Each structure stands twice: as C-alpha cells, then as structure tokens.
C-alpha cells in the first residue's frame, strides 16, 4: 500500500518549486493566501471557515507523514480527538485562555504519539496503517468508557472560550476566527519549516530509500518517530482549536471514520504538496456544509464520487495538478525561442 | 517584504472595521413594525438526521409534520394570525455533533431561526442546547433521549418534548414488574446510554418490588450475542431486558428468537421505535414489550392525524413525527398568545402550560426542569397485523406523573 502511495508521489527537488525563494510566484501566492485567510469568514459562515482551517492543518499533519515520510497513518483521529478532549479538560478545569489550552492539547497529542510511534514505525505500509488504527480505536473506547472525564457519548460539553476577557473574541465566532487562524497559521509555518529543513530532507530520503538512508548513517526509525510526533502535535493543534471553536469535544473526533476522512482530504488536496491539505479541507468541509441544507440525501455519494474522480483523473490531487499545470506552462514559456 | 506586511495589516484593519460596521447594523432594532416579530416572520428550523440511521424515526418526514402544523395554525387563525409569514428551514446533521453545532449557529444567526426542533443524537442535542442558551433562542428537543437536557445541562431556552431514558425505564420496567414479571435479567451495551438504562431499569424493577438477577454488559457494537443470551437465561427469569438500540437491538432480537429463551420469557426492550418493527418485521418482534411515547392507532384522534400524515408521506408517523407536529403547533400558539416571537416571552408562555393535543395527553410543560411530561404507553408487539403499520397493542396507559417522576433536582433554571 505504502509502496503504491509513495510511488505516485514525486516531489522533484531539481525543479524549482513555485514557492521557492527565488520563484517570482512566491510573493504573489503568499499574498493571495493571506487575502483568502483574512477574507474567508466574509465569504463563508465563520464557524465553517474555522472548520476549514482546522481540517486543513489536520490534513497537512497527515501529509507530513504520508507525503514526506511515506507512512500512511490510519489513526490520526487519536491525536486530533485526544487533543480535543485534553484541550477541553484543560480549559474547563483551569479556565486558562484558549491558546494555552490548545497548546496543552497539542502537547498531550505529542506525548501519546511517542509510545504509539515507537511501537508502530517498525512496520510500514498496511501494517503501519493497521497498528495506528488499533491505537486510535483503543483511545476511542477509553474515551467512551471514562465517562466521568469525557462524558461518554454525550461528549465533553460547554468548553469555555476564554481569551483575556476580550468579549468580541470570546462571544463572536467572527472575531474568534482570527484568533484561531493565528494558531493554525503557526502550525502551518511549523510544517513548512520542517519540510524545508535538513530534517525534512532526511525524512524524504527515508521515504524514497530507507536502506540507503540507513547506509548513510541516519537512524531511520528515530527520524520516523520524530516525524510522527511532530505530525501528531500539528494534528493536536488543529483538534484543540476545533474543540474550542465548537465548544465541545465528542466521540466523533476519535472515531475511525475521522481518520479516514482526513486521509481523503489529504489525497483530494494532493499528497506531498503540504498546501493541498488546505484546498482539500476547503472542498470537503464546504461540501458537507452546503449539502447539509440542500435537502439531498446522498451526501456520502457525492463526496465519494468526487474522491473517485480525483484519484482516477488527477493523481496528484487538486493542488498537485494545478502546480503541474503551472510548471508546464512556465517551462514551455522558457523553452520557447525568444524574439 | 515590508510593504507586504503593511498591506497585510491594512487588510486586517480594514476587515475589522467592516465587521464592526456590520455588527453595529445588526445590533439595531429588528422588530418588523407592529407585528412584534423579529424580521417580520417566524422561522422554524428542523435539524435532524436526514440520511443516516435515524432517518426513518425522525428525518425529512418530521419536516412534513411541522409543515402540517404551520398549515393548521394558518387555517385556525386566518387573518388574526400574529405570524403571517412562517418559514421552515431544514438541515441534515449527518449524526455528527460538530455539524449540528455549526448548523444550529447558522440557523440562529443567518437564517434567523426563532426555534430549532428535534436533533437526535445526545451529543448533538446537548451542543445545540448550549447554542440556544448562548444565542437566547428556543430549542425544543424531540428525539434525543438523554436526561442531561432536563438535568445538569438544562437551560432556560431548552425544552424536552417527547420522552427521555428515565421515562422508558419507569414505563417498561415499572409496568411489567407490577404486572407479574418480577424476576429480571438485563443485557446492556457497555457505553453511557446502556449503562444509564441498566441503572434506571434496575432501580425501577426494584422499586416495583421485583429483583434483577444479573446485569450483563455486552460489548458495543456487537454482532454475536450467543454467550450473553445463555447467561441471560440463567436463574430462569420471567423477563429478559435488552437495552440495545438500532443495529444492536435488531441483532439481539434475531438471536433471541433462535435461542431456547423464545416463548419462555418476556422480552422487554429499553428503546424501540415503530420503524424498528417495520424494518425487521412483526414475526421477529412479536410479543416484545416496550414503552412508546405515542402510537398512531391508539384512538380516533391519533388515527385521523395519522391519516393526514399518510396522505402526504405514504407511511404512518413515528412518535417523533407526531411530537415535532405538537412542538411546532404549541410554539406557534405561544407566539399567537404572546403576540411576539421574543424568546423570553415565549418561554414565559410555555412554562407551566397544560396541553392536550394529538401528541400530548395530560401534558404539562414542567416549569422546574422544562421537561414536557405526558401520558406514555406500555406497548406489546402484535403477532399479526390487520393493516399496514398495525404493529402495537397498547397494554396500559402510564400516567404522566408516574412516567416522568419528580423534576430532576440537578436542573437549576433561572
């Protein structure tokens, strides 16, 4: 499974990325991204806009593993949901400002990722996916049973959204969006830095040829655990903001279909593109939201059909296909004789 | 780089001021002239499962029921109606609490819903109740059964209309035990709903003078109940109680029918809807006893309403459909009486109101905890039907006070 997955990923480092430092596209794209980030709650209902960003970072965290480390985790709901509950409990118990609670949740996600990563990175492909799924299910059942702590299937309700007494952010989901978006942005920047760091180069090498990476003296397993824990932290950051945004954490956050959904979002956006996660989340969350009030009954059918079309026709996802088109256009223009 | 930063902060500042302006606009007076209605109309939101497991119990057909209430209200008051324009907006929460939460906010804020109805799934219902309290708008829960809505998590703007898990226990366990089924074994799924049901059933059996030999936890979800059925037969109980719901219940009942227990003991089910009987068939459920909040063929009044419903949907209504009708109708009556859709005034209208309608018999909107108490029924599944959907024999009417018990002291309104 992972062989096939990674085979379809080709981040060709010899080609200039459209986001690389020298690319003329870079300022334009970054500015465009910033404008979209700022304007999103004007276009879309603010809580839904917040959901898009949370799912976007969640998908980026999965992409960090799937696209850059070559590990398909099928249990990332454990970190998203684990952090949602931890964030909720911290915010409820101590009433701290929500960014502190979210960071606490992310730290909790990283903490549980250490043993899970330690035990699961020894396997690859379908076995890795199954082991992570098993751990996520364990967490799901613990949350289901520990009802004094988590509220069982009623969920952890009424998580406060305190932010230094600034009422606009605490009460109005429009202003809260900007406060939450800042946290998500931090997560995105971390992911970007990780991918473009020496560490990122090593995990990409591990993905492409683990034997060679080992021969070069890198401790392959340790790098994998590192990537796993960072990814869990990012998923936790996203899950924490999600819980604060909604004011509750429910079992839905831990159930295995959430792990499946985030892989779908990642594939839809484009594996190994990092930014694709945000695009995929935009598509899936908006679709779920608009179909919910459409009166149409087959919501699963539509998202499923879109997924099939993307996987069959656009192997690199929405972002990846767009990037390839731009690249081809740039190369065509360069190779055309001047004058 | 610097210029971009400046542009960025300019954009943020500009958007913030725009937003402030927008909020200022929205904060102004909203009443639609003399009618006393916000935005000049009444908007009823229906938020439930329109595509998943609860679709048949209370899905799009509850929308049909609410539309019937709107039509009836308009026909009743004609030109004197306070609410001249009544809109019904619907959304599918897909059984996900987070979607329910966003959709509820959107309904209250954007679609200007004055009341949200239904919302199955207890996590979703509790999330919507929190939003109702935040936004100071009404929420009338119908198909979620959790007692937390009228207990620790109750609030001024939330009402619980049709039933709750406590009612099921008092009804089924109390009535069967008093009727001679004094020795019980209970099998329950091992999660919060099942554990709660087991606890309240055990308490009610004992209160009625019976004994519970064993309480057996089964994993959730489960396909194979063979070992639990064997255990449930130990000690020759008169009654075996199943606290399962949905797919688990169907599996349990199928396997119960193939076990030697069939015919020897009474099968009592904690939570069952008429749609469960419809999907599995009478032969599977025959003889099972359970508590129903309402049955379409109970009397002429119910039947007349069910006929109207069938003309529109081609199926008979579940109790949740009828409860949605009743809640929408009584909400509109309260608007009529108050002359406004202001939530606080509607709450004042509803609190303590005694209601008798097609769904509620001897009904009362209890002021202490906002539970809407009413008579419920102990039902037995028939072995043969004389017409479509003729599935239940009503053994006993359980009076409201007995079914609901005293108000939950954990609920502090005010």
Automatic annotation (TrEMBL), chain B:
InterPro entries: BCAA_transport, Leu-bd, Peripla_BP_I. Residues 1-21 form the signal peptide. The keyword DNA-binding does not apply. The keyword Transmembrane does not apply. Residues 42-383 form the Leucine-binding protein domain. Keywords: Signal. Belongs to the leucine-binding protein family. This is Branched-chain amino acid ABC transporter substrate-binding protein. It comes from Intrasporangium oryzae NRRL B-24470.
């Amino acid at each position: 499974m992972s062989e096939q997955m990674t085979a379809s990923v080709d981040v060709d480092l010899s080609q200039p990325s459209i986001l690389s430092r020298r690319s003329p596209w870079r300022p334009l794209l970054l500015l465009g991204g910033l404008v979209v980030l700022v304007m999103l709650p004007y276009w879309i209902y603010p809580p839904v806009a917040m959901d898009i960003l949370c799912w976007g970072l969640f998908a980026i965290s999965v992409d960090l593993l799937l696209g850059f480390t070559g590990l398909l985790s099928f249990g990332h709901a454990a970190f998203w949901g684990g952090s949602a509950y931890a964030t909720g409990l911290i915010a409820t118990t101590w009433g701290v400002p929500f960014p502190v609670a979210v960071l606490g949740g992310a730290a909790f996600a990283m903490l549980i990722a250490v043993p899970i990563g330690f035990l699961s990175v020894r396997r690859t492909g379908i076995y890795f996916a199954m082991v992570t799924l098993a751990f996520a299910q364990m967490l799901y059942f613990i949350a289901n049973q520990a009802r004094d702590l988590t509220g069982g299937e009623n969920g952890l309700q009424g998580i406060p959204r305190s932010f230094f007494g600034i009422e606009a952010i605490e009460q109005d989901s429009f202003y809260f969006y900007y406060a939450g978006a800042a946290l998500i942005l931090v997560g995105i920047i971390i992911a970007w830095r990780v991918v473009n760091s020496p560490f990122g180069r090593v995990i990409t090498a591990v993905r492409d040829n683990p034997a060679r990476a080992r021969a070069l003296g890198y401790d392959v397993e340790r790098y994998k655990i590192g990537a796993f824990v960072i990814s869990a932290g990012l998923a936790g950051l996203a899950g924490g903001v999600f819980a604060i945004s909604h004011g509750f954490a429910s079992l839905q956050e831990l159930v295995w279909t959430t792990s499946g959904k985030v892989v779908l979002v990642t594939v839809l956006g484009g594996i190994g593109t990092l930014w694709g996660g945000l695009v995929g989340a935009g598509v899936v969350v908006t679709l779920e939201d608009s179909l919910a009030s459409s009166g149409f009954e087959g919501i699963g059918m539509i998202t499923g059909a879109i997924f099939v079309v993307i996987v069959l026709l656009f192997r690199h996802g929405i972002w990846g296909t767009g990037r390839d088109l731009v690249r081809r256009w740039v190369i065509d223009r360069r190779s055309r004789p001047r004058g | 780089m610097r210029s971009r930063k400046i542009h960025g902060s300019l954009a943020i500042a500009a958007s913030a001021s725009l937003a402030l302006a927008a909020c200022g606009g929205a904060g102004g007076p909203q009443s639609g002239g003399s009618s006393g209605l916000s935005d000049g109309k009444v908007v009823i939101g229906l938020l439930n499962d329109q595509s998943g497991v609860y679709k048949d119990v209370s899905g799009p057909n509850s929308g049909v029921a609410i539309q019937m209430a709107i039509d009836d209200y308009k026909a009743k008051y004609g030109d004197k109606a306070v609410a001249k324009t009544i809109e019904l907006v619907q959304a599918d929460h897909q059984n996900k609490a987070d979607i329910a939460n966003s959709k509820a906010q959107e309904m209250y804020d954007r679609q200007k819903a004055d009341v949200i109805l239904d919302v199955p799934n207890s996590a979703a219902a509790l999330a919507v109740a929190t939003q109702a309290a935040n936004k100071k708008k009404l929420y009338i829960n119908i198909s979620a059964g959790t007692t937390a809505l009228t207990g620790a998590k109750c609030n001024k703007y939330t009402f619980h209309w049709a039933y709750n898990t406590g009612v099921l226990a008092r009804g089924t366990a109390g009535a069967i035990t008093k009727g001679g089924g004094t020795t019980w074994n209970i099998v329950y799924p091992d999660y919060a709903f099942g554990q709660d049901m087991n606890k309240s059933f055990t308490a009610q059996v004992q209160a009625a003078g019976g004994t519970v030999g064993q309480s057996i936890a089964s994993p959730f979800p489960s396909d194979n109940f063979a070992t639990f059925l064997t255990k449930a037969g130990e000690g020759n109980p008169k009654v075996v109680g199943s606290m399962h719901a949905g797919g688990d219940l169907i599996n349990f009942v199928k396997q119960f029918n193939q076990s030697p227990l069939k015919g020897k003991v009474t099968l009592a089910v904690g939570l069952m809807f008429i749609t469960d009987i419809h999907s599995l068939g009478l032969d599977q459920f025959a003889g099972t006893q359970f508590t129903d909040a309402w049955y379409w063929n109970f009397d002429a009044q119910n039947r007349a309403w069910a006929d109207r419903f069938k003309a529109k949907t081609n199926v008979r209504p579940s109790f949740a459909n009828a409860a949605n009708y009743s809640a929408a109708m009584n909400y509109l009556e309260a608007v009529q009486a108050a002359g406004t859709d202001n939530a606080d005034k509607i709450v004042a209208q509803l609190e303590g109101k005694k209601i008798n309608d097609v769904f509620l018999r001897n009904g009362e909107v209890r002021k202490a905890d906002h539970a809407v108490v009413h008579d419920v029924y102990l039902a037995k599944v028939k072995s043969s039907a004389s017409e479509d959907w003729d599935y239940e024999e009503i053994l006993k009417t359980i009076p409201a006070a007995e079914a609901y018990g005293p108000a939950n002291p954990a609920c502090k309104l005010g």
